[in-house]
Design a protein that fits this description.
With 132 residues, this protein is an all-beta fold. The chain has one domain (2-128): Immunoglobulin-like, CATH 2.60.40. The chain is built from no helices and 12 strands. It has a 5-stranded mixed β-sheet, with no helix packed on it. Strands 1-6-9 form a 3-stranded antiparallel β-sheet, with no helix packed on it. Strands 2-3 form a two-stranded antiparallel sheet. The radius of gyration is 16 Å and the shape is flat.
């Protein structure tokens, strides 16, 4: 299985289309956000990952997200989420993760995402100072 995309979003909705086919509506895709108040603070952005399972695979997997303060695997861990899932081979599924991220200062946190023990897929999130 493979991660096709992983993004921080404000809203995520699924809807049917002719076919039958599914459409995914994502709004507020973001890689940064102005802080709602001065640090320290906790934010809970939504991370959505789209995962594809090729034909011939089992369709069972584990989606893991580790939120870290850097890009390296030994960077400080802020939060972690692990969720098993199943998907019909030849189809897509999604995982929605709401991280509770503590910020003591403005800067970046990286969502390290993977299915099973595959390589990490990194998604940056930057907390900016509040807007006056």
């Amino acid at each position: 299985m493979q991660i096709v995309s992983a993004l921080f979003v404000e809203n995520f909705e699924m809807r049917q289309a002719p076919g039958p086919s599914t459409r995914i509506d994502m709004t507020g895709v973001m890689f940064s956000q102005a802080a709602p108040s001065p640090v320290p603070l906790t934010l809970d952005p939504h991370l959505v990952a789209l995962i594809f399972c090729p034909e011939g695979e089992s369709g069972s997997g584990v989606f893991e997200v580790v939120f870290r303060r850097g890009v390296d695997e030994d960077s400080e861990q802020v939060a972690r989420n692990v969720s098993p899932f199943t998907v019909e081979p030849g189809k897509f599924t999604y995982r929605l993760v709401k991280g509770e991220l503590d910020f003591e200062e403005y800067g970046q946190i990286f969502a390290h995402c993977r299915v099973d023990k595959e390589p990490w897929h990194l998604v940056p999130f930057t907390l900016l100072p509040p807007v006056d």
